[in-house]
Write a structure and sequence with these properties.
With about 210 residues, this protein is α+β, with helices and mostly antiparallel strands. It has helices at about 10-15, 45, 55-65, 70-85, 90-100, 100-105, 115-120, 155-170, 200-210, and strands at about 125-130, 130, 145-150, 175, 180-185. The chain has 2 domains: about 10-95 and about 195-210, Ribosomal Protein S4 Delta 41, Chain A, domain 1, CATH 1.10.1050.10; about 100-190, RNA-binding S4 domain (Structural Genomics Hypothetical 15.5 Kd Protein In mrcA-pckA Intergenic Region, Chain A, Roll), CATH 3.10.290.
């Protein structure tokens, strides 16, 4: 599967906002976007020209796609699935993206970023309801239990990530036992439950795919 291997800070600068691709490290003053406001590349005056409606919609889609570390084909599959669900397509899309196993591992503080969470899942360190799951896009449901395998609980990166739990806690729709590296999904996630999604305008994505 293709994946992005260049500097992730360039993606944040391209979207002119923090995408939190490095997790908690993006909250500090050392984040490059705090120093370099312009998008990467040459000719900043040309790049700063007014965007069309299509350009605004495209940038919003790219922003969300990059936040969750997805390629276009997979992101489109999630969108079409959200379309078939009852309710608003934009809200459904956010809920589905938050239900991804790699995102759940990140939200439970078992990983400091979604990219690290994706690696932890793909390497078989995570179990859902007692069974090993190594598919990052696996959708977790209400009352599902997500935990780190016993053989993986000594991993330093997971222990270091869990230190953030004691400082900031977790989102309200999750329940986490940091000592046992185990958590439970209490409810389906909604956008208002997560502060780093506050600036996301999911309706623009719906308008883009409805063209």
């Amino acid at each position: 599967m293709a994946r992005y291997t260049d500097s992730v800070c360039r993606l944040c600068r391209a979207e002119r906002t923090k995408l939190f691709l490095k997790g908690e490290r993006c909250y500090g003053p050392k984040c490059p976007i705090s120093k370099k406001r312009n998008p990467p590349g040459k000719a900043p005056r040309y790049r700063m020209k007014k965007m069309s409606d299509y350009g605004i919609q495209l940038r919003e889609k790219q922003k969300v796609k990059r936040m969750y570390g997805m390629l276009e084909k997979q992101f489109r599959i999630f969108f079409h699935k959200a379309e078939r669900m009852q309710g608003k397509t934009g809200d459904n899309l956010i809920t589905l993206l938050e239900q991804r196993l790699d995102n759940i591992v990140y939200r439970m503080r078992f990983a400091s970023s979604r990219s690290m969470a994706r690696q932890i899942v793909s390497h078989g360190h995570v179990m859902v309801n007692g069974k090993k799951v190594n598919i990052s896009s696996y959708l977790v449901s209400i009352n599902d239990t997500v935990e780190i395998r016993d053989s993986s609980k000594k991993m330093v990166v997971i222990k270091e990530s869990l230190r953030e739990y004691t400082r900031a806690g977790v989102v309200p729709w999750l329940n986490v036992d940091p000592d046992n590296m185990k958590g439970e999904v209490k409810a389906l996630p909604i956008k208002s439950d997560v502060t780093d999604l506050a600036e996301i305008k999911e309706q623009l994505i719906v308008e883009l795919y409805s063209r």
